[in-house]
């Protein structure tokens, strides 16, 4: 595997995570973190760890609409991926923007920030080891989060 192939595989994981979140396919989000954990600025280094806990965290905090999705559009950009093939590790810094539109909420950016991701190469497959989420900007999340939750937002 080359460094370019590693970057492509890691980019794909990040973009799949966005797509699965938008579609409210939380078991698939969880599977991406089966060997990893998610930490959030202001909430601690480990908010959830492993597939089941990750899927449950998203399922319990995200409003899902009748058509089955979250009516969101996650966009990850500015991926800076540093690969160490000898160690089987990679670091990625990226920006994210989440837009949402519902029947009551006009299209708008509801969340923006940056992620710091660590990946490891296991049996020829890149896997998430850790994602650390920092929320830089938060808008109206009332149509995105369950009423009693405030995950991933300080």
CATH class, anyone?
A: Alpha Beta
Alpha-carbon Rg, integer: 15 Å
How would a crystallographer describe the biggest sheet? 6 strands, mixed
Quaternary organisation: single chain
Physical arrangement of strands within the biggest beta sheet: 2-1-6-5-4-3
Helix content: 10-25%
Principal-axis shape: globular
What's the β-strand tally?
A: 6
| SS element count, helices | 3
Note the run of SSEs as H and E: HHEEHEEEE
Mean pLDDT value:
94
List descriptors.
single chain; 154 residues; alpha+beta; Nuclear Transport Factor 2, Chain: A; 3 helices; 25% helix; globular
Please explain how this structure is put together:
- This protein is 25% helix and 42% strand.
- It has 154 residues and is an alpha+beta fold.
- It has a single domain, classed as Nuclear Transport Factor 2, Chain: A (Roll).
- It has a six-stranded mixed β-sheet with strand order 2-1-6-5-4-3.
- β1 (37-40) and β2 (44-49) form a beta hairpin.
- 25% of the residues are buried.
């Amino acid at each position: 595997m080359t460094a370019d192939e590693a970057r492509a595989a890691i980019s794909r994981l990040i973009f799949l995570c966005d797509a699965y979140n938008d579609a409210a396919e939380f078991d698939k989000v969880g599977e991406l973190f089966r060997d990893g954990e998610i930490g959030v600025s202001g909430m601690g280094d480990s908010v959830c760890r492993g597939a089941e806990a990750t899927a449950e965290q998203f399922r319990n905090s995200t409003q899902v609409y009748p058509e089955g999705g979250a009516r969101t559009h996650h966009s990850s950009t500015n991926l800076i991926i540093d690969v160490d093939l000898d160690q089987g590790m990679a670091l990625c810094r990226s920006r994210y923007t989440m837009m949402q539109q519902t029947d009551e909420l006009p299209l708008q950016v509801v969340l923006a920030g940056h992620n710091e991701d660590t990946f490891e190469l296991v049996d020829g497959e890149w896997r998430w080891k850790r994602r650390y989420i920092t929320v830089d900007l938060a808008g109206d999340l009332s149509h995105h989060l369950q009423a009693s939750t405030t995950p991933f937002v300080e």
